Amino acid sequence: MPSILAIETSCDETSVSILKDNQILSNIISSQIDIHAVFGGVVPEVAARHHLKNLPLVFEKAIQQADISLSQIDAIAVTTGPGLAGSLLVGISFAKGVAIALEKPLIGVNHLLAHVFAAKLAFSELEPPYLALLVSGGHTELLMFENSSINPVLLGRTLDDAAGEAFDKVARLLEIGYPGGPAIEQLSLTGNPYKYRFPRAMLEEGNLNFSFSGVKTSVLYTLKENEKICKPDIAASFQEAVVDVLIEKTAMAVRMTGMKKVVVVGGVAANSRLREKITFWAKENDLQIYIPPKNLCTDNAAMVARAAIDLMKNESYASLNVTADPALSF
Ligand code: KG4
Ligand code: ZN
Questions:
Q1: Does residue 164's CB lie within 6 angstroms of at least one atom of ligand 1?
Q2: 28 Cα–ligand 2 center, Å
Q3: DSSP per residue over 43-85, as a string?
């Protein structure tokens, strides 16, 4: 297996990883969470500037930790989209520089595909066919990998907010900080998930698209109507509604496709309630479930490196003219 050096800068995490023979030699992640928390969300211009400052340091650290000579690297992988244009460009420019200096090929990686490959890092035996539930801050998608690990069929996606975006927006309503997912998960621990019945949208059979703007609005009205509300109950009930919809839609996709393996990836896949409930559901339905460890669910460059290995097998290389594609999709 080739050795890959990968760079990820699509949002607010600067990450560089070195992967050799499916082993993560290093996966350094420098998060900008504290910087953006002050603004309640990621500020694109600020994110790009910090990537510019951090990337050379993260790069150095990744090489040091991997204890590998650069001449042993076979290819440079970089996220080309989707994501923030300025942030992506910082990573792409840096990757091009490294590829030119080392005279190695460049591989452009779709960030969404990279998230799915986090499962392959954790479960090397995983091979198509499988269904993937990808739940992140910008995307909520059901993907079918029938006979290829790099060319999925898009079965459904969110028509408005992504699941992670809903967590972030509701956390803002509850004034519990950014990013919202971990904050809501924490607050939910002391709340009653059955206290409020928030809407579970679009659960009619055959519809694999999602909608999370209704549940957010419903939380807003519930907060407005009740002055002395118990925030943990709201958080837990909201989390339950989102988790229920994600599992229901995945179940629907399994019924429609007959897939027996289910992969759950993306930042929201770090959510303990989702991990616990979807694992239980999978067991009850005789399905195999693949959820990477939490640190591989959120943005990191190791998943980009792993995606690059399969792209290389397919001779899918990028030219040095490759640029950022902020709206890249499948
Ligand atoms: O995949 P990711 O790191 O970045 C994107 O590609 O978007 O996902 C970030 C999203 C954020 O919306 C964050 O609130 C959510 O994942 N998230 C969680 C948890 N950890 C991160 N949502 C629910 N529970 C969590 N524990
Ligand atoms: Zn991501």
A1: yes
A2: 15
A3: -HHHHHHHHHHHHHHHHHHHHHHHT--GGG--EEEEEEESS-H
Same fold for the pair 3-115+297-313 and 125-291: yes
Sequence-separated (6 or more) residues with CB below 8 Å from residue 284:
none
Prediction pTM value: 0.97
The CATH class given to the 125-291 domain equals alpha beta
**Of all protein residues, whose CA lies closest to atom 23 belonging to ligand 1?**
181
Ligand 2 center from residue 134 Cα (angstroms): 9
Per CATH, the number for 3-115+297-313 is 3.30.420.40
User: Could you give the angle at the alpha carbon of 137 between the alpha carbons of 135 and 139, nearest 5°?
Assistant: 55
**SS3 assignment, position 219:** helix
| Residue ranges of domains in the chain | 3-115+297-313, 125-291
ipTM value: 0.99
Q: 143 CA distance to ligand 2 centroid (A)?
A: 15
Q: What is the pLDDT along the chain (330 residues), one digit of tens a residue?
A: 899 999 999 999 999 999 998 899 999 999 999 999 888 889 999 999 999 999 999 999 999 999 999 999 999 999 999 999 999 999 999 999 999 999 999 999 999 999 999 999 999 999 999 999 999 999 999 999 999 999 999 999 999 999 999 999 999 999 999 899 999 999 999 999 999 999 999 889 999 999 999 999 999 999 999 888 999 999 999 999 999 999 999 999 999 999 999 999 999 999 999 999 999 999 999 999 999 999 999 999 999 999 999 999 999 999 999 999 999 998
Question: For the residues of 148-206, what is the DSSP string, one character each?
Answer: -SS--EEEEEBSS--HHHHHHHHHHHTT--SSHHHHHHHHHTTS-TTSS--------TT
